[in-house]
């Protein structure tokens, strides 16, 4: 068994402007924005300070961010004063390597500042892989089908995702080898996407270690909500409840739509769309939970494009609004009141349609049916009533 070198340095690349993560009213670079009260960059530094094998940590920052970095008030004997990076990530890493050259560490880990959730286990796996390889990085197998389209419009080929992996950081190397490779790469007219690509180009042997889906890179505004949830768990979310009620009369026909399912009957429900009273009530319940008005606000009956439309369109829209807020649907409950048709045998199909429309498990959907005991317009079989409730979790700062 080989002995691990004693001198291990970390370069934290924080020289980007983080513009893709800007949201309305927020122009602060993402690495200096806070997640659960602490800046992203500070959390990334913390992750490496927590590992006892790390001897040196060197932040590489943008020339405009000196004051923002100083405001973090990071202090530790292993933490070096930040240096200024270059115009690209590749150039910034090279500046970091040059700054570390006088110390000549045995190993160097290169970490994206925007990945604050790297775990001790991942760091340890990369260091262990460097005992037998020139380089190492955590990776994740791809789960989506990958299409290649050179013109960005028409698919040319479907890639074999079994051979494709998503790269994460830290990417670790033997210092002398990656420094030499970076110096050579700087002389060619080509921009490399990460340090592992430079190592591959230079002929170094790079191992893959097991990645972690929690080690995600904060890139877009919605990633901050995900980061808050990762740290705070349920404390970052709040539960909201909405209710919905709808009624439609019968008119001559041969079937009704209820819960997205066509049910043969001696009449149909009257309405501008397919008059699915259950989905209308459910859509209103979801919209109410997130303060988005009712179905008529989003799909006015005066708009002829919705004439005869399937109500699953309305439900899908409500679910999309929840997702756009970083929320999730916890459970849905629908009660259908009618004398006829009989509903019970259609309930499993309704739950399936609703679940598939919203991208949730069918076990989160409950549908019940009852009668009005022959009382009122329901009892006279003049129409159908539906009542619904929706429980939704959304980020607390929504």
Keywords:
2 domains, five-stranded mixed β-sheet, eight-stranded mixed β-sheet, 2-C-methyl-D-erythritol 2,4-cyclodiphosphate synthase activity, Spore Coat Polysaccharide Biosynthesis Protein SpsA, Chain A, alpha/beta, 60s Ribosomal Protein L30, Chain: A, 398 residues, IspD
Describe this structure in words.
4-CDP-2-C-methyl-D-erythritol 2-phosphate binds at residues 246-248, 272-273, 294-296, 370-373, 377, 380. A divalent metal cation binds at residues 246, 248, 280. The structure is a single chain. This protein has 398 residues and is an alpha/beta fold. It folds into two domains: 8-219, Alpha-Beta Complex (Spore Coat Polysaccharide Biosynthesis Protein SpsA, Chain A); 236-395, 2-C-methyl-D-erythritol 2,4-cyclodiphosphate synthase (60s Ribosomal Protein L30, Chain: A), CATH 3.30.1330. 28% of the residues lie in helices and 26% in strands. It has twelve helices and 19 strands. Strand 2 (34-35) and strand 3 (38-39) form a beta hairpin. Helix 8 runs parallel beside helix 10 (312-324). The longest helix is centred in the last third of the chain and has 13 residues, at 277-289. The chain starts with 7 loop residues before the first strand and ends with a strand. The model is unreliable at 21-26 (pLDDT under 50).
């Amino acid at each position: 068994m080989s002995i691990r070198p004693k001198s291990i340095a970390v370069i934290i690349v924080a020289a980007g402007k983080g513009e893709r993560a800007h949201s309305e009213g927020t122009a602060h670079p993402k690495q200096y924005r806070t997640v659960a009260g602490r800046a992203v960059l500070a959390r990334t530094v913390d992750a490496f300070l927590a590992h006892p094998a790390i001897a040196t940590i060197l932040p590489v920052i943008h020339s405009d961010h000196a004051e923002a970095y100083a405001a973090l008030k990071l202090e530790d004997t292993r933490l070096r004063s930040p240096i200024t990076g270059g115009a690209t990530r590749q150039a910034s890493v090279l500046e970091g390597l040059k700054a570390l050259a006088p110390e000549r560490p045995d190993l160097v880990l290169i970490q994206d500042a925007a990945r604050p959730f790297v775990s001790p286990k991942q760091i340890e796996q990369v260091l262990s892989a460097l005992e037998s390889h020139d380089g190492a990085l955590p990776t994740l197998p791809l789960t989506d089908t990958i299409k290649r389209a050179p013109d960005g419009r028409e698919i040319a080929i479907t890639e074999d995702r079994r051979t494709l992996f998503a790269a994460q950081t830290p990417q670790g190397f033997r210092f002398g080898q990656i420094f030499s490779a970076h110096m050579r790469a700087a002389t060619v007219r080509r921009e490399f996407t990460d340090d592992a690509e430079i190592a591959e180009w230079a002929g170094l042997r790079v191992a893959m270690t097991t990645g972690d889906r929690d080690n995600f890179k904060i890139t877009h505004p919605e990633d901050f909500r995900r980061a808050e949830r990762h740290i705070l768990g349920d404390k970052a979310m709040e539960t909201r409840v909405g209710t919905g009620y709808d009624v439609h009369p019968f008119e001559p026909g041969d079937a009704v739509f209820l819960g997205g399912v066509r049910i043969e009957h001696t009449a149909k429900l009257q309405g501008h769309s397919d008059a699915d009273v259950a989905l209308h009530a459910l859509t209103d319940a979801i919209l109410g939970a997130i303060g988005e008005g009712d179905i008529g606000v989003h799909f006015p009956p005066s708009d002829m494009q919705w004439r005869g439309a399937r109500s699953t369109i309305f439900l899908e829209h409500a679910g999309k609004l929840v997702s756009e807020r970083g929320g999730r649907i916890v459970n849905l409950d629908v009660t259908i009141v009618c004398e006829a048709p009989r509903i019970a045998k259609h309930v499993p199909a309704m739950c399936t349609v609703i679940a598939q429309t919203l991208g949730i498990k069918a076990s989160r959907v409950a549908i019940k049916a009852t009668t009005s005991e022959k009382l009122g317009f329901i009892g006279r079989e003049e129409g159908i009533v539906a009542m619904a409730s929706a429980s939704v979790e959304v980020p607390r700062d929504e």
